[in-house]
Design a protein that fits this description.
- The complex is a heterodimer.
- Chain A is built from six helices and 14 strands.
- Chain A is of the alpha/beta class.
- Chain A has one domain: Rossmann fold, CATH 3.40.50.620.
- By secondary structure, chain B is of the alpha/beta class.
- Chain B has eight helices and 17 strands.
- Classes of the chains: A alpha/beta, B alpha/beta.
Chain lengths: 259, 322
Amino acid sequence: MNIVVCIKQVPSSETKIRVSSETGRVDTSEVEWVINPYDEYALETALRLREAQGSGAITALTLGPERSRAVLRTALAMGCDSAVHVQDEAFEGADALSVGRALAAAVKRDSFDLVLCGKQAIDDDQALVPQALAHFLGIPHVAVVPEVEPTDGGLIAHREVEGATELVKVGLPCLVTIQKGKFEPRYPTLKLMMAAKRKEIPVLGLADLGLDVAAVTRGVENLGDRLPPGRKPGVKLEGEPAELARELVTRLHEEAKVL
Amino acid sequence: MSGVLVLAEHREGALRDASFETMAAGRQLAEALGTDLSAVLLGGTPEMAQLVADRGVKVRHARHELLAAFNSEAYQRALVALVQELASDAVLMPHSSFGNDLGPSLAVALGCGAVSDCIGFEKTDAGLKVTRGMYASKLHAEVLVPELPLVAMVRQSEFKQAGPGDGGAVEAWDPGPALAEPLRTRFISVEEVPTTGIDITKADVVIAVGRGVKEEANIAAVRELADSLGAVLAGSRPVIDAGWLEKERQVGSSGKTVKPKLYIALGISGAFQHVAGMKGAETIVAVNKDPHAPIFGVAHYGIVDDLLKVVPVLRQKLVEAK
């Protein structure tokens, strides 16, 4: 089974998010960049599928600026066989539809059976690109899946729904978006890290994908980012734990009248 | 073009609350656009259709074997046909696992814009302005949708459920040839989490524990606190994922939504996925070591301290106060 895993470089979840007063957008100047955590689960899922089946190639694919090549190196060091970087200034500000279209053009360059993506990127939290990618590849998709099982000619996806799990059977080729499951992503090994540094990573621009600037749309445009409005703050209780506990019980009893 | 269309979500024979919340969002959007609101139910029962109609909207109800259980391919094809027939301005659905699977591909199939995790709609001269969450809702983004139609996934627990209204009606709708072609994905079954009979949504007092509990052994102290209060024990996602509490005790957008009289959050940072499941509580108490934890933004009473220090003394004071 040949698997393509789409990954994105995002600010670490530990990063303090600031809005730039100049641009009105997120200030990324002091950000620590990492692989989107859900994409790490997708990589781990791909590696485990291959281990279980004993064969198949795994390609990591990203679309982003120069700096995002780092996530491809990490993916190679985790055990992917090859990596492809879609990079073109034309993608600045592109909407999910255009990103899906461009990724589809990159995926189609080789034969594939399965495309895995993280269920969403933790920066924009859009959860739109994978489904757009599936559409442009003309393949079915299943979203929010912590676990997949290979079966005759396809997969059984354990789809997470609120408070339950749905089992869905889907034929190959298909696309699955991965939710955190029971396996933590593996760490890169030193040996693979050394090998990853030496691997060629092809860079594909718009023209290499057979697309022109008209393929990049901005149908939905971001006007600006802002911190959510603060709510009226509650009462902060301070002091020694025993005092705090007494005061809380009193307030819950007399003020909130819930005890 | 006319109308805002809300898709009612159901699972295992019941409508989800998020359907009614999305109807409330749909009403806000319909008012902003100066158009009317209607709903669609794919699969489901006549009783469900009537429940939606009782909110004062016209409901188109499509019954077809391929629509019986949620299937994003089948639902997408049916909705494309309906949106084109009605020339809808917008299609709204919950930002749930279901909406996340369906909404984006519906938008691509319709060739229109999609906005996920929506929390507000406003009409401007340049077009429709939608507010949505980003960075785990640490930020809000305002996005402009210059052209309609739009597919919008509405954040769960953000809007109050639409109340009853007059003038609703159910009308059968036939998706026609939209479902003629075979589907490539097939629903097999739903595995409900093994039940222990606990229903955290029915409790008056919920004590929820999060990552701050550090290790499984520390849950015992929290359980004692819950027992002394007659409260039900619940948890945030990290604790459930670690297997320290049963899945049916999970509070949040991927678990249960609770609205108890008293909610005590212990060592829970308050990511919006958790807050979505508990902000309807009448009184919220938060204990967390991090003074900047977002949970303090929704708590009525906040204690900045280690829950492991607070829990034993709080239990003692509660017992004394009885």
